[in-house]
Amino acid sequence: MANKKKQFTAEFKQNAVDYVYAHPDMTVQQCADHLEVGKSTLARWKREAKANPNHEVPFVGSGHYSSEAEKENIRLQRELRDTQEALKILKKSHQHSGKLTQVIYELVTLEHNAGVRFSVSRVLHLLKLSTSGYYDFLKREPSQQALHKEEVKKTDQRYL
């Protein structure tokens, strides 16, 4: 049978840290043994509480957040990090191709037209693309090749 990791409430963690401070004659190991938690766990809780201005343990529990705003903030930070990593990979693979820039401009336009509220200039700045290039892209007429491809697609769909 696999060992299941113990999960402690924020109240227990705070009480454990308070217990350590209330018993200066005991070592962290003795306190941990008395509370039936690991020494390193108790030491981490104490260190994190000490770093917090009000000396409270700053977390609720394993994977739990103190508010919905904090949970959403963490999710958005993770999403931003993942998006930045994906963009780095794309830029490296298409450094000398204008196609990546065009795809990004198309995605920004689609999101903007779908009613997603964001600052186009801010997004382009974060992606290190020029706003003037984006607005030129919006005004640009389709090339002859693009028009021909559309015509072929329409023809193909009629025969399907």
Counting DSSP H or I runs of 4 or more residues, the number of helices is 8
Number of domains: 3
Question: What is the H-and-E element order?
Answer: HHHHHHHH
- From the helix content, strand content and strand pairing, which structural class follows? mainly alpha
CATH class of the largest domain: Mainly Alpha
Low-confidence stretches: none
What is the global morphology?
elongated
Taking all residues together, what is the mean pLDDT? 80
Our estimate of the beta-strand percent is under 5%
- Name of the CATH architecture of the largest domain: Orthogonal Bundle
Q: Whole-number radius of gyration? A: 28 Å
Helix content: 55-70%
Amino-to-carboxy terminus distance: 58 Å
Key structural traits:
single chain; Arc Repressor Mutant, subunit A; mainly alpha; 3 domains; 160 residues; 67% helix
Q: How would you describe this protein?
A:
This protein is mainly α. It is built from eight helices and no strands. Helix 1 packs across helix 3. The longest helix has 26 residues. The protein is elongated and about 85 Å long. The chain starts with 9 loop residues before the first helix and ends with a helix. The mean pLDDT is 80.
Concise structural overview:
With 160 residues, this protein is mainly alpha-helical. It has 8 helices and no strands. α1 (10-22) packs across α3 and α2 (28-35) crosses α3.
